[in-house]
Amino acid sequence: DGGITQSPKYLFRKEGQNVTLSCEQNLNHDAMYWYRQDPGQGLRLIYYSQIVNDFQKGDIAEGYSVSREKKESFPLTVTSAQKNPTAFYLCASRKPTVSTEGYTFGSGTRLTVV
Amino acid sequence: QQPVQSPQAVILREGEDAVINCSSSKALYSVHWYRQKHGEAPVFLMILLKGGEQKGHEKISASFNEKKQQSSLYLTASQLSYSGTYFCGTESGGATNKLIFGTGTLLAVQP
How far apart (Å, rounded) are the C-alpha atoms in residues B102 and B88? Predict the structure, then answer.
């Protein structure tokens, strides 16, 4: 079955450390997205990519970086510049932007700073 | 700017109806609705495109008033499985389509 795989499910980061969250999809979707969710809050857009080798900043991109070298993969790096990274991170994908279909989400990565 | 949802939370008994509203300050191309169970990823319910159509999905339907930049989600004869947090997501269209999620509405259905 097609879907989005996020790994790891849980991640612990030490102060000053960079960590990378993996997101892989086999849905042949062109567009991919990273959202951050804090407890009891909505989803906020970090970065998104509509085609390979191109991506745009979302509303809260500071302290994060991404790459889109392959259509299937859209990894997110949480850098040491992100001062409050503890959150639930969700990756999503979608067919070409003019679409009547919604987003498909991965199961998420829960990041905790220790 | 983030769409505003109302109410923030609602508690129902099984079989009761509920309406969740989503309001945006921007002109909208489409509105999405998602349901998220605790600790899980959001699940897509439906999308409404510019044109004011109303869509249905089992006992859940929605409307979209593009002039008022508002959408409403209607849940009828609620079931225990309807419990969760409901989010609207709005797209303003153009070359950089991106979904901006609303503030969320927590729905609890009790037996």
Answer: 5
Min CA distance, A102 vs chain B (Å)? 6
Length of chain B as a residue count: 111
- The DSSP call for residue A114 is -
Nearest CA-CA partner of B1 in B108, B107, B101: B101
Residue A114 confidence class, pLDDT cut points 50, 70, 90: confident
**Contact yes or no for A23/A3 (Cβ under 8 A):** no
Which of A42, A48, A97 has its CB closest to that of B102? A42
| Cβ within 8 Å, pair B99-A44 | no
* Contact: B41, A98; criterion CB under 8 Å: no
- % chain A with pLDDT above 70: 96
Cα end-to-end distance, chain A, whole Å: 36
Chain A residue closest to B97 (CA)?
Answer: A97
